[in-house]
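Troubleshooting: if your tokenizer reports a length mismatch, compare against these two reference records.
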Amino acid sequence: MIGLAAALALVAYLPGALIFRLPLADRDRRMSLEPEERVYWAVMLSLAISLTAGFVLAAAGRFSLLRVIAVDGLIAVLAIAAANRRLLARGATLPTAWTVAPVLVAALCVWLYPPPSEYVMGGKDPGTYLNAGIQIAHDGSLITHDEVIATLPREYLPLFFPPHGYDEYYSLRFMGFFLLDPATGAVVDQFPHLYPVAVALGYELYGLTGARSVSIALAVLGVLGLYFLAARLAGRPAALAASGLLAIHLVQIWHARIPNSEILTQPLLLAGMLACTRAHVDGDRFFAPAAGLLLGLLLFSRIDGVLVLAFAGAGLGLWWLTGWRVRAAFVIPLAALGAAAGPYAAAYLAPYLNTPRRWLAANWIPLAAVMLAAGAAGAAGLRLRRHEPVRRAVRTWAPAAIAAGIVGLAIYAWFFRFQGGRLAEHDASSLRMFGWYVHPLAIAIAVAGFVLLATRRFWKDPVFLSAAAGSAVFFFYKIRIVPEHFWTTRRFVPILLPAVMLCLAAALVMPLDLRGARARLAGWIRYGVGAAVLAAIAASFWQAAAPVRAHVEYAGLIPRLEALANRLTDRDLLLVESRNATDVHVLALPLAYIYDREVLVLTSPRPDRLRFAGFIRWALEHYENVYFLAGGGTDLLSRSFEVHAVASESIQIPEYESAWNAYPSGVRLKKFHLDLYRFAPARKGVVPPTSVDVGAADDLHVLRFHAKERDRRGTYRWSRDVSYLMLSGIDANATALVLWLDGGGRPRSAPPADVEVSIGETVIGRVRVEGGRAAYTLPIPPDLAEAAGRAMDPLTVRLRTTTWNPRELLGVPDDRDLGVMVDRVEVVRR
């Protein structure tokens, strides 16, 4: 623990604390800041330094915690040397009663946010971020060189990596991971890498728990960032209220536990804007390069960081138009990071930017016009800012115009914007949808708070207020994400939710310059009413977050994955069924990139038989064991190899409902039915199985069935409109096929359960399934049996069934198209 504490101090505190105390750029000025804010800046500067060092090292293929610590230590030593024994500053501000406020807010966050989710599986963005970060820690590079791909003969590549036909990448390794070059096994994840680097640092510090806890630490820093920004803009009572509301809000709690880059963007953005304002409005030169670094890092955190920077830059531009100058010490690091972002994106994000690049190419004319207009506006501003009437007009009218624009757009979005034409429902209702997470009355108060801040204090922080207004217009105009909640709420994390909390607090408790006895009395009444309204809003936030506070997404998944990984060694190969079968493929990513197992995912549930048989022969020669993990159905049986069942289990993990265009209603269980098989060379004289227990270890015998289920009579699967059974026990001695089927309580309003049974393209019979479970025997024509005996591959039995939908007919949540319950199939032989 001592070593962990020392490493954490070097990564997250010491370099920033020493740089903050350097006797340069008016040290006495920044030492007059409150002691709690000085500690905050030490942490944020250290975080920025460590992330930058880790990112550069990973891009160079040399990442490790020791190297990052070495860089931090070198910076600390240089700072001590540069200070020349003058690190102790006299006259620093001492703690006050208000020092307790951010400490209490941080303690509240630390109490609320753990434990982190067990979101280690693939399939969606959080799992991609976490696995990418751990892979950086394992390989030390942004690009992974996957040996299992590099050693795979090229003739077997189509089984797992069909070429996608793009210049930017060859195929998909996993969802969210692009295979760049199969010859070298070069793989890169799809997102910007600053958050994965943070995950890599957490993993190196404290293993998988440390990697998962990174989001919690960043969420705490985001809440504190809002406190200090709000304290400067609206006063410490409003800061305490705003940060407290943000801390207990369900969106902040949810994303504090989920790996996502927005939770890194939040503290970088809030701290960067505060530093920018301190540098330019307050005139503190020290914060200019700090602001350039913090805001520049946004370009490596999220693609839409460019937009937020543009909105913040607009506020800085307005401030510049009033006659003030922008510090070169701010522009230089920001421009340097911006210049580095281009080559970085070209080298590592080309697959991810494939679609945006095509859009840019198709819309280059309007974009060029916008760029020319921006250039012309800048040139005009350069001339106009020299005239005092222009500067005075900007100072007078810009805040009021922004406030009026926000009020008008809010009224339009809430009362008049509805779906129609090309306007999608989730875009038309984006602001009303935000009302699911912040009460509509609170939104109205926040709009009033924005007007108050914009009209009275805009020039105290034009950067934050412009960025908040621009982001609100942009994201509430087009939410630009799948309308799946809590997925959509990611859009609110970086600035929208903090801005709403700050505007709420400003409207209700921000001190106003009131004079006269009556005015002061009105002020006290306002504070009393405001505190009561704040308490009511806080109570509603607390109640809304209760289900989320008690929920840990995918709790229990990690020990199940560890048990599965422990069955395998680094000399074993695990094949996983395709993404078209079930969700089992999402477990392949952590098995490969967290637990370092050799894993390949089939690209199709019906792989080419000859090619797959050849691959199995090759794999059995190069690996000690070759396994197959399945839960759905894959057509890969062959008489050229044997497949033996090894293990079977069911996993149920809690997952919060992701409803489209609707507020999530609660927790459901995500189920995985896992069957592990082992391949072996074919033995002569072994009789293939003549029966299949459907719903048990049947994955190699079924295709296009629903998931496995169990009742008091045993296991079964529901068939679809067309489902397939692969049977290797049909040969010249086969005389009949017996199917155990059940109608499954089909309602009277549904069509009859008619099942047409075919072997190959030959229909061997039709049955109507009525009542409970029963056996249905169909004769196998002799010519089909003889042909099956000569074939190397199993025969395919097709079930074509009339289906019904429980949700449509019964109004229940089950929206599957159901055929019949298939319990067992058996081949009768002479």
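Reference record two:
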Amino acid sequence: MDIDKEIQTLSEKIKILRQEIKKGNKSVLKELVEARKRFKKLAREKQKRLSAWERVQLARHPKRPHTVDYIKSIFTDFVELHGDRRFGDDKAIIAGFAFFEGIPVAVIGHEKGKDTKDKIERNFGMPHPEGYRKAVRIMRLAEKFKRPVITFIDTPGAYPGIGAEERGQSQAIAESIMVMGSLKTPIVAAVIGEGGSGGALALGVADKVLMLENSIYSVISPEGCAAILFKSQEKAPDAAESLKITAKDLKELGIIDCIVPEPLGGAHLQPEKMFRLMKRAIRSTLKMLIDKDPERLVEERQSKFYSMGKFLEK
């Protein structure tokens, strides 16, 4: 859309003008102020009328910050652990230990990759069963050493290939869900891009589920839903509306607990600001959970998920 192109152009222009000011060129200050005003006006206008399908596109934006970016910006002294101790290491899931503002935590997340080579190595963020088993291994270690678990969800779904099925994909996902449901340590999950099907839920059974404003979280992709229900992927925008996959819809339905606002124009335009917003959200959420009795945490977590999906017949 033309407005999207103008927003992107203004964003790049603002970055260039800021660099000029840093170099001492004060003559561009007025131009920067005008560019920022125009950017804010257009971005707010766009944000007000975003459709569910447009949010899908934003959630999949190639420049959107990934798990590795949040780890580098929010945590310190991250040590990545590898392998599931059964088959191998799955690079579609990053897992390890770090510090969050001095608090030792476990960090686990899907990773889609940056360039083509990285995307292929990470299987475009679609984990194999060994990825979920690695995640479970780190979760159990976190429970043993009384460390909160923070997960980042960003996947189209678990990999559905023959090899993955042969190695127990569904069992690995089920085990991860079961372990998270009974883990005696605080768990915070954040949907930062796509949250697709069981591949996402395997890292989403948390005490508090955060979701970025322009992320999506669904049992199936809009394209998959359209192919099944309408026999045509061209109906994906209609399916996106029907699926209720946006943060606003899911908050109203009680599936998520908190919507994390994104910078104007989307997280990909101002990643540093996005990191600050996410850090603030994790900080306030951990503060609510960290001193709770472990048994009470598990009880409340299970009660929360058991209550989902209820409906009344008229």
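Descriptive notes for reference record two:
- The first strand starts at residue 76 and ends at 80.
- The mean pLDDT is 90.
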